[in-house]
TrEMBL record:
PANTHER family: BETAINE--HOMOCYSTEINE S-METHYLTRANSFERASE 1 (PTHR46120), HCY-BINDING DOMAIN-CONTAINING PROTEIN (PTHR46120:SF1). This is Betaine--homocysteine S-methyltransferase 1. It comes from Amphibalanus amphitrite. PROSITE patterns: HCY. The keyword DNA repair does not apply. InterPro entries: BHMT, BHMT-like, HCY_dom, HCY_dom_sf.
Length: 412
């Protein structure tokens, strides 16, 4: 497949940077964030938003860039023909994929970042289509994606390793680097293929970077990636590792968020805090993961936290990233203080001037708020679910009038 030249001739590629020891920071979940902003519909996850509301997509790319991401991902999620037909989307596959890539590329070039676009699960595969039909569907998407000069191809939101292998095969035809993320936790893919086997099969299919995206929260994602890493090591395979979990706490038994009754519309109570994003990045780095980002419910402030706190940038790399000094991790001093020197003063565009562990709260007049500055507080405080109510919305609002009578004496 013919590839036009890159718009940033001096930019280092993904693999070049990874081989040089950099750690790449991804962006957050585009489609969920667009849903929260009322531009797309839940369930339809309509990718034509890139055509209908391009300014909203551009603004979100810019936010992730300001947060310090090294890679921006085009919003071409689900933009394959069979799915678009099912959803009744009137735009063409070419139009949506091209528009998504252009919006993303404009911001990436403006900020000097890498950019990518994705291949995801297709109804063609789900309905038992042939290998050729599935691969043709991916090739149809890849044509505009490659013509718009992405830096690499991201295969993600794939639940069956067999479909992943087809996606990797199609992506490899472009000659671009291929990143492959199974959307799984420790229970493996839909057919019960283990994380270990998925990792080996992605690597053997030719993916340069392998790991997981979405599905499970940061902690369970780490457990899954740990098993993948050990399996790859045992077999002498050495792809780079990627982790882009969902920004929610998910059950320790490995079940994915999709199985929770409150997914996808009532997930706010289990959304991770910015400090959990930070701690995830730390642990991921120590696990040897060198492409660290987020998927759904990871918002721009989570990414900023990842960059600001956990990954000091090399002074020579304007787009990003990372060499993390393990020696600073457990000193007990505030993380931001520790790493400010390591970063040589480099910060994301949107970094807080006052530090990322609650800096600035000491300006409040209330002493109890003033005391909430520093890692010691924010790494150890937990949401007070008993006070805030671990109840359903119906329980929460039931009997509020009688509760008022019990708690307040109204006397006019
Ligand atoms: Zn996701």
């Amino acid at each position: 497949m013919e590839r036009p030249g890159n718009g940033q001739p001096n930019k280092k590629g993904l693999l070049e940077r990874l081989r040089a020891g950099d750690t790449i920071i991804g962006d957050g979940g585009m489609i969920c964030e667009m849903e929260k902003r009322c531009y797309v519909q839940t369930g339809f996850w309509t990718p034509e938003v890139c055509v209908t509301h391009p300014q909203a997509v551009t603004e979100l790319h810019r936010e992730y860039a300001r947060a310090g991401a090294d890679v921006l991902q085009a919003l071409n999620f689900f933009a394959n023909e069979s799915l678009m037909q099912e959803l009744g989307i009137k735009q063409s596959v070419e139009e949506v994929n091209r528009a998504a890539c252009r919006l993303c590329r404009e911001v990436a070039e403006e900020k000097g970042l890498l950019f990518t676009a994705s291949l995801t699960a297709t109804p063609v595969f789900e309905k038992g289509g042939s290998r050729e039909e599935v691969v043709d569907s991916y090739r149809q998407q890849l044509k505009p994606i490659v013509e718009e000069r992405v830096d690499f191809i991201m295969c993600e939101w794939l639940f069956d390793i067999r479909e992943m292998e087809l996606a990797i095969g199609a992506a490899r035809e472009t000659g671009l680097p291929v990143v492959a993320c199974m959307t799984i936790g420790p229970l493996g893919d839909r057919c019960g293929v283990s994380p270990e086997q998925c990792a080996l099969r992605m690597a053997r299919a030719g993916a340069d970077v392998v790991g997981t995206n979405c599905a499970v929260g940061p902690r369970v994602c780490l457990q899954t990636l740990h098993r993948m890493r050990l399996a790859l090591q045992r077999e002498g395979l050495q792809p780079f590792l990627i982790g882009q979990p969902i920004g929610l706490r998910t059950p320790e038994d490995g079940r994915t968020m999709i199985g929770r009754p409150y997914w996808p519309l009532a997930c706010e109570p289990v959304t991770i805090t910015r400090f959990e994003a930070n701690l995830f990045a730390r642990e991921a780095y120590e696990e040897g993961i060198r492409y660290i980002g987020g998927c759904c419910h990871f918002r721009s402030y989570h990414i900023r936290q990842v960059v600001t706190v956990s990954v000091p940038r090399t002074a020579a790399e304007p787009g990003g990233l990372v060499v993390c000094s393990v020696t600073v991790l457990w000193t007990g001093r505030a993380m931001a203080e520790e790493l400010a020197k390591e970063r040589g003063g480099r910060q994301p565009e949107a970094a807080s001037r006052l530090g990322c562990w609650g800096g600035g709260l000491d300006r409040f007049s209330e002493p109890e708020v003033q005391s909430r500055v520093g890692r010691q507080h924010w790494a150890h405080v937990a949401p007070d679910l008993h006070t805030l109510g671990d109840q359903s919305p119906a329980q929460h609002f039931a009997d509020w009038k009688s509760a008022l009578k019990r708690s307040v004496s109204v006397d006019y």
